[in-house]
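Weekend entry, working from home. Most of the wet-lab plans are on hold until the incubator is repaired, so I used the time to fold the two sequences that have been sitting in the queue since the last round of cloning. Logging both here for the record. First:
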Amino acid sequence: MSSRILIITGIYPPDIGGPASYARALAGHLSQNGKKIAVVTYSRRWKADVVNGYPVVRVWKRWPWPIRHALFFIKSFSLAKSADTLYVLNTINGGLTALGIKKLLHKKVIIRIAGDYAWQIAVEKGKTNILIDDFQKAPKTGWISILWRLQSFVCQHADQIVVPSEYLAGLVRGWGVSEDKIKVIYNGVDFKPSELSKEDARRKVGISGNIILSAGRLVPWKGFRMLIKIMPQLLAVNQFFRLVIVGEGPDKNRLQAMIKNLNIDRQVVITGAQTPDKLATFVAAADVFVLNTGYEGFSHQILEVMLAGVPIITTPVGGNLEVMKQGENGLMIRYNDEQNLVEAIKTLWNHAELREQFAVAAKQTAVTFNVERMLKNTSDLLAL
């Protein structure tokens, strides 16, 4: 008999984001390989539909908080009755829902952890300005302490934890989860680089000049503020530099205010969220990709840019160290290190042969993180 799997997620297409894309890719792979699949998700839509033969049950995000979460549990419980395994992509809401179902229906629960939710909320709410590794040992109070304890509780009581990097495996062990419950399955990407030339790509996105590209959710630890801050220095090196930031998020207004205050409105563009095809065009238009980040569990973005052959500057944090090799397939500088960030960009700009060397090596690295392998390894785990 084929395995029956319920995927419990906080986001699913048409909503945009890495977790949504991951959930859709996995559900499609499982369904095509004989598994009976159902998905339950929070959504901007409120009608269930059928995707490639499996149901996607949606809970409308605009319901009041108590109604929204009650409906999420009820719908998950109903679908779980005919499932063997619950695969959870939403740590706290989804995790607590799954543990409740596990207690009532005795189902197997596997949870995928892609970061520290408590830390992310603490940073976004201005409750802390320390980086994730320091946060693990720091005193926690109030709502942040409750969130941290809840995510630890969820992971400790799940049957198995999936993480996309060795770095995150270590983080989860610090939450009191035994090592034998943790399985590392590296992310894979199916990003399709644009076939446009750099000049054609620039024309298509409507930006001329030499593009320094960055991308990600607009949150403080992604380091976009520093990239904007150093633009006047970079413009003194090359007046045709243009900083393009692809993404959406809570820091957007602050970033736009910085751009206006520095009077660099014509040299810096924040594009908002983009479809994969449009993102591929921006990547094709770029001379350099910079991810000045204080935290990465495991970056899809870096792998996608590697596949496209764009030279990368990033930071030696989290899962980046499992992909990047200093001076071989890119450059790494300390997070928010203003002087070294400027120098790294200048170095790549002034040495075309180094950009080419990094581009070739990066492509060779990226192909080893194969999306088919990721999906097969996850499918095998869920079928056990």
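Second, folded right after the first finished:
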Amino acid sequence: MKKRMILMLAVAGIFIATIAAVKTRQIQKGMKQNASFQPPPEAVTTIIAKQEQWPATWGAIGSVAAVRGVTVSADLPGIVDKIEFESGQSVSTGAVLVRLDTRQEQAQLAAAQAARELAELNEKRARDLVAQGIQAQADLDTLAAQQKQAVARVGELRATIERKTIRAPFAGALGIRQVNLGQYLEAGAAIVPLQSVRPVYVNFAVPQQEVGQLRIGSSIHAGADAGGVAEDGRITAVDSVINEQTRNVNVQATFANADGKLKPGMFVRANIGMGKGQSAITLPTSAINYAPYGDSVFIVEEVTGPKGNKYLGVRQQFVKLGPSRGDQVAILSGLKDGEQIVTSGVFKLRPGAAVTVNNKVQPGNNPAPKPEDS
């Protein structure tokens, strides 16, 4: 029994040793194959780095304001008798918007005109009597004063009637009507907004360290997300006071706004011309490998493998980024003219990775794409 047990253990040991030896050879063979394995090259697109003139601009957030804008309101209380405009209508200077009921004032005016005529007759009779020595000069002076008061009363009532005809103080575009026919209006009650939007202002703030580069008449470009609005204008005013809390200075630019797309209160992004600019290498933003420890690009060049073999691969190069415009970003340092830079497929690369270049389809590289945020 013991001999049989020993024999079975010996056979099992030999079997396990044989299996272990076979697996060891397989593992060693796999390790050798893995060490010599070269992953297939990654397909990428590239661009040749070259120096370009990069315009000096400053980006700011601005708000559109009307050159002239008011909410037309009632000057005197009264009942709306006629409404002579439509919401959203364009009007000229002096156009009648609303007429208030003036029947009471018209009746008072008729009475005042009759009183004026009587005062004029009394004053004329007294003048003749004074000339004949029949009436005293004091009576004539009293009647003359009454005649002037009657004339003033007529003028006052006519002015009141005119003030109840509400007109547009300047040419512009009306907003939404805020009154209805027959409505009683208090003095100062809002009737309709009126904005002059050709031209318009864009107000924004610039840090104090950039103020020295601002010039009246400098070009400025403004864009808004709403409907792809884009306009070019000029800086027309720089505030004389710097905000003590933010250390920013308020700047105002004027835009012709011929098509009226810039609306008062609209949020816009403004790019301000700040001089001649500088020379920089420009790349598509898709070429940048953004990372917390530093931004980098991949340069395509001939790479030497572990066994001394040569192949087309990539080298990771850290760079210093400058401003961006459209699809492009400026590279301030880290690259040289003539280097071949990967522009797409960056996310799948590692230093030394083999690549194959296929430039049939290139990523966007337009400094002024349409729309702007394409």
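Plan for Monday: verify the second prediction. The chain has three domains: 42-54+278-357, 56-100+174-276, 102-163.
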